[in-house]
Write a structure and sequence with these properties.
Length: 126
């Protein structure tokens, strides 16, 4: 014959509800603790921002910026129009202001050609 199971082995419904209630209370205390800690951190951040005259970043959208390939913080690829505009904006540099842009471009092409020539003769270029 099999022995009877004693009723002390199975948890009582009131005991289960007490455990659930205790866990919920503990979770609420934890959440409140973290809210207080975050409030203190934000207060400290505000003090630093006001001391150094730093503007708070505007949070747009979901908060995290995802790149086109799904990575967090990944840089978005520029369109050809954006690249052309960026190249035109570089003419405002010192070289562009001095009117030496053409000379610099000629020097770049000459150096690139020389590098390609040398690269063909050296063993690591193959």
């Amino acid at each position: 014959m099999l022995p009877k199971k004693s009723s002390s082995c199975s948890p009582k419904p009131s005991r289960i509800s007490q455990v659930v209630a205790a866990r919920l209370e503990q979770e609420e205390r934890r959440k409140e603790k973290h809210r207080k800690m975050e409030a203190e951190r934000e207060k400290m951040r505000e003090g630093i921002r006001s001391k150094y005259n730093i503007q708070k970043k505007e949070e747009g959208g979901a908060g995290m910026d995802f790149g086109t390939d799904g990575r967090i913080g990944a840089a978005r690829k520029k369109t050809p129009e954006e690249l052309a505009a960026e190249m035109n904006a570089e003419d405002d540099s010192i070289i562009g202001q001095l009117g030496m842009t053409e000379h610099v471009e000629k020097a770049k092409t000459a150096i690139t050609g020389a590098f390609e020539t040398v690269k063909g003769f050296l063993p690591f270029g193959k």
